[in-house]
Amino acid sequence: MYAAYLIKAALEEAAPARTSGEAALRESAWRTLQESGKGMENPEHSKAMLKVLATSLPAMAGLVVAPKIMGAPYSAQELAALKDVMGAQHVRIRTLPDKTLLERYFLGAHADSATNTVGIGRSQPAAILAHELGHLTGSRRLMKAYGPSMILGQMLLPAAGSIPAYTAGKASKNKEEAVRSGALRGALAGTAMWSPVLAEEARASWRASQALRKIKAKNLIRGHLGLLAAYATYLGGSAGIGAAYGAGAGAVGYKRRVKLLKEWAKKQEAAEGTGKEKTA
């Protein structure tokens, strides 16, 4: 539930909704995430989710680590060279004010395919600039599915990750197996639902890496490592969050299995007792 508020605050500051329709879709996604958080009231669900979320923290740490890895702010020469080798002469650069925490890090940077514009702060490194340019050059078919995939993923991931995991939990032999199988199914669901986002981010980072190498950018290795760290945040937000939902649902499914088995055993005992009384 808290994740919904954090994601909402981050996106509203970094990339405000441009239309009332987009704002309505986002609000619907936040409400869905908030409602799904109510399942945390179940202790078994809560423990399993938090355990898996803890393992995803290293990936999410890329939000802070990546910009620090990448090095110094990009220069005018690097901007010109990147636009040249990436075929991005049609792309306009909009400078963002480096005032807030989000803008000082790479969350403020974005690519707008509708206007062929990259918004980026002057304190941000060349690797992030190249990544955003990568979104607006080359094949852009995945960009069309990017927004819908992210919004629908946020709305439907709780259900998509939990339903198959709950079923797997009911079929598991013990709680550990239920959590493992549930986390795996949740991670697969998260990856599948965010697949256009993951594919497009990988494409943009690959183009960025190739361009940085061609222009012999400063801090080249650090730029590559930073792009990998940044990509890990998308894996954490899709597979990682899906695994957490799945682990919780798997634990709840196993608890339900145990309850049903106990109820069945009681009925069997009652039936056997009634049969003995009739025989006597």
Q: Main traits of this protein?
A:
3 strands, disordered N terminus, about 280 residues, elongated, mainly alpha, about 5% strand
Written account of the structure:
By secondary structure, the protein is mainly alpha-helical. The chain has one domain. Helix content is 75%, strand content 5%. The chain contains 11 helices and 3 strands, in the order αααααβαββααααα. The protein has helices spanning 2-14, 20-36, 43-60, 62-70, 76-85, 101-104, 126-135, 141-170, 175-193, 195-214, 220-279, and strands spanning 92-96, 110-112, 117-121. It has a 3-stranded mixed β-sheet, with helices on one face. A hairpin with a 4-residue loop joins strand 2 (110-112) and strand 3 (117-121). Helix 5 (76-85) packs parallel to helix 7 and helix 9 (175-193) crosses helix 11. The radius of gyration is 24 Å and the shape is elongated. It starts with a helix and ends with a helix. The relative contact order is 0.16.
Number of domains: 1
Question: What is the tally of beta strands?
Answer: 3
Question: DSSP helix count?
Answer: 11
Radius of gyration (Å): 24 Å
Overall geometric form: elongated
Protein topology:
Elements: H1 2-14, H2 20-36, H3 43-60, H4 62-70, H5 76-85, E1 92-96, H6 101-104, E2 110-112, E3 117-121, H7 126-135, H8 141-170, H9 175-193, H10 195-214, H11 220-279
Parallel strand pairs: 1-3
Antiparallel strand pairs: 2-3
Helix pairs in contact: 1-2, 2-8, 3-11, 4-11, 5-7, 7-10, 7-11, 8-9, 8-10, 8-11, 9-11, 10-11
